[in-house]
Amino acid sequence: MASPGSGFWSFGSEDGSGDPENSGTARAWCQVAQKFTGGIGNKLCALLYGDAEKPAESGGSQPLRTTSRKAACACNQKPCSCPKAEVNYAFLHATDLLPACDGERPTLAFLQDVMDILLQYVVKSFDRSTKVIDFHYPNELLQEYNWELADQPQNLEEILMHCQTTLKYAIKTGHPRYFNQLSTGLDMVGLAADWLTSTANTNMFTYEIAPVFVLLEYVTLKKMREIIGWPGGSGDGIFSPGGAISNMYAMLIARFKMFPEVKEKGMAAIPKLIAFTSEHSHFSLKKGAAALGIGTDSVILIKCDERGKMIPSDLERRILEAKQKGFVPFLVSATAGTTVYGAFDPLLAVADICKKYKIWMHVDAAWGGGLLMSRKHKWKLSGVERANSVTWNPHKMMGVPLQCSALLVREEGLMQSCNQMHASYLFQQDKHYDLSYDTGDKALQCGRHVDVFKLWLMWRAKGTTGFEAHIDKCLELAEYLYNIIKNREGYEMVFDGKPQHTNVCFWYVPPSLRVLDNNEERMSRLSKVAPVIKARMMEYGTTMVSYQPLGDKVNFFRMVISNPAATHQDIDFLIEEIERLGQDL
After folding, report:
1. pLDDT, tens digit, 9 for 90 and up, residues 523-543
2. Closest Cα to residue 481, out of 571, 369, 401?
3. Contact 237, 221 (CB under 8 A)
4. Who's near 379: CB < 8 A, 6+ residues apart?
5. pLDDT tens for each residue of 274-283
6. Residue 58: in which H helix or E strand, if any?
7. What one-character DSSP code corresponds to residue 179?
8. What is the distance between the alpha carbons of residues 252 and 389, in angstroms, rounded to a whole number?
9. What's CA 104's distance to the chain center, in Å?
10. Which residues of the chain have pLDDT under 50?
């Protein structure tokens, strides 16, 4: 594939974030926004700079105050002297919007009102005085609203109300005190890119229908491979619907590399295959084995040390056992950033073993891959450059809006050989442009969403140094939390030592349990503490953090930090809130 070149498409090393901290720059931005967006720009600037009433305290946005508004105009005259007709949503339906005849004005008015709802929600997401969640039980929501689908259309006034209601009960994943998942935060440039992607509404399978997006995918994947350490960014890759599918792609390609006949003849034509991964690895490895007909029993779980890292000696022992039974080891999946402990497997040792036994080495860096952007922390993935394939989810540690997951493959052309089916109605061989840019035949999907633009635009806005600063900050916040609670009364760490990633795993021990001996009764009672505190967090709406058991360890909190809005103040709040909600247990 020919390179699209540098300039507009490529990534610079400088930080292009350009945060407008002075009011002059901010106001200038507002003037531009108002010029090009009219009411949208006015309302956004009012919300941001305090020139209008704050949004209502309800979970979403203010209710519409009227069923009608002055329609926007699409003319290029500034100021506009066109007569403005009233738009009454109570008498309008989707059929009155574009492409309907005379649908332009109601369409602009409707989309501006939708945008107002979205912008109010965005601003409120960062307001610490608002709830992270307005929690209702499923039966309550089902009874409070009619969610059923009907034969007859509703008017646009009702459609706007549905938008408000949906956001009212949505989780504010961008809230500074939302720590529940690995994917948190709400990036403004990424959000804008997502809106643009939906507006373009195209498919990624051929250059002819997605020219810019295909080029951006090429550029971005190449840059990611360079960061992994493959010479010149050589290799291949694709954006897929999440890390689980990326991991399954790796398993699929590794199988094809060893036994290419499996593509046509199936599993019956090849020996029994065995894959290896750590006991702390993601469940997607077993799901992938089930989906590919390899079977979950053929995924061998390797023992981990007390910090959750794969033990290389146990890996080699289990490989030899499989070979002695006549089975064929075909893949080792090491993890760079496990889901619960945030552990990094010893990739160099794993790579040596894979080389010794000629086994495909995959690195699931869905959670930890972002650390490659940090000069301070990338050493934790030493050896990743020796992998045959890597899963990397920018929608986790790098804060790109969901979904954005990449599979990177060191050998160019292997994905294409593994997956192509030569559909002649899409991949004609006599097109008038370079066919290497028709990337759809190397994917399992036919229809493929544009996931790259969010990452590319954020990278242009932040620069590599901007991502680095974000990642370093999150790691520092995790260490801050660890240093506070490691010797604090009422807290017990799940494992010793400061966190490897932003995962901080701990038990909160209420006063009533602190005097008990460490026996089965205490463990039974302790296992109930985290679920109760979590339920209270959600009912109050103050914060959200995850919990789980693991092995012989009863329920404990797993704090993760990837939210760029989080500060030391929010970490302090979390500790105080856990104690407030759990002291009576």
Report:
1. 999 999 999 999 999 999 999
2. 571
3. yes
4. none
5. 999 999 999 9
6. none
7. E
8. 11
9. 35
10. 5-6, 13-29, 32-41, 44, 47-66
